Amino acid sequence: MKELILASNNAHKVEEIKSILSDYNILTLKDINFTDEIIEDGLTFEENALIKARTISKYSGKTAIADDSGLSVELLEGRPGVYSARYSKEQTDAKNIEKVLSELDGKKSKAKFVSVIALVKPDGTELTFRGECHGEIISEQRGNNGFGYDPIFYVPSLEKTFAELSSDEKNSISHRKESLEKFSKFLKEENNEN
Ligand SMILES: O=c1nc[nH]c2c1ncn2[C@H]1C[C@H](O)[C@@H](COP(=O)(O)OP(=O)(O)OP(=O)(O)O)O1
Ligand SMILES: [Mg+2]
């Protein structure tokens, strides 16, 4: 089974990625004893995903992947965007949600989740794959599943928020599903050529 190191400290993300990439053996930062903080100071999801994957490929000498993701709200001109994890002073999911809802001041808005997967190989190869999922921000929180902004991200066609979906349902339509599908399609094509 093909092995990949996933550069993430987010247990929810790791679980989703392991479930979507079930054909791969995914190692995490704990498995390689990496405990440093990686500074995500890029200005785009692509830059931040590459910073994380590059750091871990260099550290391990192996192929690494990373996900950089976030929420982009139309009425907030795309915020919180790449700052999604650090949007509130406290930098917790609950406070980040509170800040978005307070800025929207009771209004609904179109929004999208973005996930960018970066692949970095020891030979210096660097690639990114982007997935997006469109929905709406609603003014109340619904559901207890998932993580991050899931309780306020509503999918009109399902009449549910991401936090009201099972993990299998979320993983079949999410931004992360789309980015990982592009990524695994690339890996499969690459392996058939060799
Ligand atoms: O499916 C999602 N459902 C809800 N919220 C989500 C999702 N995907 C990203 N998000 C939010 C969470 C966090 O506020 C930010 C990601 O920030 P991001 O830096 O990529 O991840 P992180 O710091 O949690 O873990 P790490 O960088 O170690 O992979 O966007
Ligand atoms: Mg992060």
Automatic annotation (TrEMBL):
Pfam families: Ham1p_like. Keywords: Hydrolase, Magnesium, Metal-binding, Nucleotide metabolism, Nucleotide-binding. GO terms for molecular function: dITP diphosphatase activity; ITP diphosphatase activity; metal ion binding; nucleotide binding; ribonucleoside triphosphate phosphatase activity; XTP diphosphatase activity. Its EC number is 3.6.1.66. Its cofactor is Mg(2+). The active site is at 68 (proton acceptor). Substrate binds at residues 8-13, 69, 147-150, 170, 175-176. InterPro entries: dITP/XTP_pyrophosphatase, ITPase-like_fam, RdgB/HAM1. One of its GO terms (biological process) is purine nucleoside triphosphate catabolic process. Binds 1 Mg(2+) ion per subunit. Mg(2+) binds at residue 68. HAMAP family: Non_canon_purine_NTPase (MF_01405). Homodimer. PANTHER family: INOSINE TRIPHOSPHATE PYROPHOSPHATASE, INOSINE TRIPHOSPHATE PYROPHOSPHATASE/HAM1 PROTEIN. NCBIfam families: PRK14822.1, RdgB/HAM1 family non-canonical purine NTP pyrophosphatase. Belongs to the HAM1 NTPase family. This is dITP/XTP pyrophosphatase. The gene is rdgB.
